[in-house]
Amino acid sequence: MPQIARLTRPSQLSETVSKTIEQWIADGVLAPGVKLPTEKTLSAEFGVSRAVVREAISRLKAEGYVASRQGAGAFVEARPGQASFRLADDVDAADPAAMVHVFELRYIVETAAAALAARRHSAPDLARMREALQRMDQAVAACADGAQADDDFHVAIAAATGNPALQRFIRFMGHQFFDSRVPTWSAQGHAAGRAAAAQAGHQRMFEAIAAGDAAGAREAARQHMVEAARRLGIDTKDWDPAPQAPWEEEALP
Amino acid sequence: MPQIARLTRPSQLSETVSKTIEQWIADGVLAPGVKLPTEKTLSAEFGVSRAVVREAISRLKAEGYVASRQGAGAFVEARPGQASFRLADDVDAADPAAMVHVFELRYIVETAAAALAARRHSAPDLARMREALQRMDQAVAACADGAQADDDFHVAIAAATGNPALQRFIRFMGHQFFDSRVPTWSAQGHAAGRAAAAQAGHQRMFEAIAAGDAAGAREAARQHMVEAARRLGIDTKDWDPAPQAPWEEEALP
DNA sequence: TTATATTTGTCCGTATGTATA
DNA sequence: CTATACATACGGACAAATATA
């Protein structure tokens, strides 16, 4: 029997309350800076206990919608909801258009990260990349699953940029596409040579980064991402990140 | 009296508890699928009431770290925290290192967006940019605050990429730095010519985008972002996104 | 400045529905 | 089927911070 994703029941009082207030904020009923009704009032209006209201407000605080001050009240934040960036929960499902858009965003940051990694990498960074590369080599040789090592390799590059914000964003994006690596590392992927091709791209990226060649690393990453995008059926004609010198145009795929 | 940003105190028991558990998950102490200690146990261990623990878990649920089932317990999600991307809460305050990192991420996506906008823009997109430009022109002429129009201009470029994910991310990043535009559009900024200089950069970006010149738009955006970064005291020496043709090197600042 | 009322923060006890052994 | 464990929810209470008169 296949694994059934457990449905998230909305039948949680505190969640219902928090979503309702969130909607009030989104609709402008509660403008930034405005004071929320008191917990006592809210509990009376919703017909729930004060504990439920407090849990709902905890959610809103965690998501950056409100901030509360003891003795004063809870207030709508100046830029409600802008504290966190959320993608559609189901990138790899249902909505192919959304996947294209998210992948393009991933392409942008991954190519830039490769260039920065070429300039800023340390010895431990290279060792981490090399270790992930070796695990993928083994996976290619054994026709095994190298998806995790694949992910680790990209995260290692991100770490080599020395920019934790960039690193966390790439990790975030990578996890969104973790499932999409299956066609590469599946049995069919090995048979069709997709795993070996991907690994060759990784190798080119690593060599350019290790050599400190920022432009080469960016181009290797670009080719690698374009190939991955095409496996997902994504149009990549607008993806030339660099002002290419004219004579290079023909050399590109 | 200038507007003083109200400090966010971490002295909230439920926040301390949720951050601690979040760290456990990040460190792998609590792996995906693992059951959290019961509320009773947690309240005993932390020395707080169950209400505090419940509020902490509400936060974790809102952020996608855990899911709880009545009668069973709370469990770490399969990809904890990867449902949303969060930056340090105080980008424009306190932590200058974090600001540098976030600004670099912004630089990456803004330059790429300018290039994509040059290729994909529609007539309404151009009209929207032109409108924001005119508002900034008026602000420059009147020594008024053009921060909102500035933000709108960058969002209009993002919209012209036709990529809603990229658009939302740029909007998200822009809001993080909204306060940082003050030195440009303040009275001192006008007097020092910073507003006029920024506006000249906007104009160059617009012209390249309108002409469909992707490389030019990228370079104009790059210069604009580098200038903004330098106003914030950020080192930009690693920021040449493109494999430049050799003869172009000297022409760059 | 002082005093008082309001509001959030925290704690405790209890009851109920659900999951699991 | 029964018993236990657990999350969910309720109510009352006090402390601490804030706002107001």
From TrEMBL, chains A, B:
Pfam families membership: FCD, GntR
UniProt xrefs under InterPro entries: GntR_C, TF_FadR/GntR_C, Tscrpt_reg_HTH_GntR, WH-like_DNA-bd_sf, WH_DNA-bd_sf
Example of a GO MF term: DNA-binding transcription factor activity
Domain of life, per lineage: Bacteria
UniProt keywords, alphabetically: DNA-binding, Transcription, Transcription regulation
Residue ranges annotated for the HTH gntR-type domain, each copy included: 11-79
Coiled coil (UniProt feature): none
Keyword flag Transcription regulation: yes
SUPFAM superfamilies for this protein: GntR ligand-binding domain-like (SSF48008), Winged helix' DNA-binding domain (SSF46785)
SMART domains: FCD, HTH_GNTR
PANTHER family, per database record: TRANSCRIPTIONAL REGULATOR, GNTR FAMILY, UXU OPERON TRANSCRIPTIONAL REGULATOR
Protein name: FadR family transcriptional regulator
Taxonomic source organism: Denitromonas iodatirespirans
